[in-house]
Amino acid sequence: MIILGIDPGTATTGYGVIKKEGSVLTVLEYGCIRTEANQDLKIRLRIIEEDLIEIIESFKPDVASVEQLFFCNNAKTALAVGHARGVILLTLEKSGMPVYEYTPLQVKQAVSGYGKASKKQIQEMVKILLKMKEIPRPDDAADALAIAMCHLQNANFIDKISQN
Fold first, then answer.
1. Digits of tens for pLDDT over the chain (164 positions)?
2. What pLDDT is recorded for position 75?
3. Which of 6, 11, 90, 76 is nearest to 44 (CA)?
4. What CA–CA distance (Å, rounded) separates 56 from 115?
5. How many Cα atoms within 13 Å fall on the side-chain side of residue 21?
6. How many other CB atoms are there within 10 angstroms of residue 41's CB atom?
7. pLDDT at position 161
8. Catalytic residue among 50, 51, 140, 143
9. What is the model's pLDDT at position 119?
10. Set 21, 36, 67, 93: catalytic member
């Protein structure tokens, strides 16, 4: 199974692609889709869409997992992330793959076993669980790998429910 994890953002959208074969996890790629702050919003959203399509075509993931916008103190930031999430969800839907959404709390719980783990703790667990030499950078890419791993924690449960 190939899982695409996405940490949405307008300036920086993190992505991580992992493959699970039996009990072996392999990182296929991770990184960020970046847009410039001085670009028109429509152009930024188009860049996110086009780059995401390239990632999907390159790795042909079986499933995607996206971080939900759970809470945000800044309404302007929440709106910007909401725009990016909308484009991401639409692009994934058009690709035909199943899409699952997880809150930051769910991601932290799945990766570290503790829902209030710090960003540093999550990054360290991603490094350990994926047998990486270093913590993946930038932070948005590490978050995306954690989101993909969260789906793996939930996949067996989801499969059992859908069989009933």
1. 999 999 999 999 999 999 999 889 999 999 999 999 999 999 999 999 999 999 999 999 999 999 997 656 667 777 878 899 999 999 999 999 999 999 999 999 999 888 888 889 999 999 999 999 999 999 999 999 999 999 998 876 555 555 55
2. 72
3. 11
4. 30
5. 4
6. 12
7. 53
8. 140
9. 87
10. 67
Note if 67 is an active site residue: yes
The CATH number of the domain holding residue 147 is 3.30.420.10
- Work out how many domains the chain is built from and give that number: 1
As given in the structure block, the two tokens for residue 63 are 């499933």
Give catalytic status of residue 62 as yes or no.
no
Structure token digits, residue 126: 């991603």
Range of the domain at 141: 2-163
Residue 103 Cα distances to 22, 38, 90, 110, 141, angstroms:
26, 30, 19, 11, 16
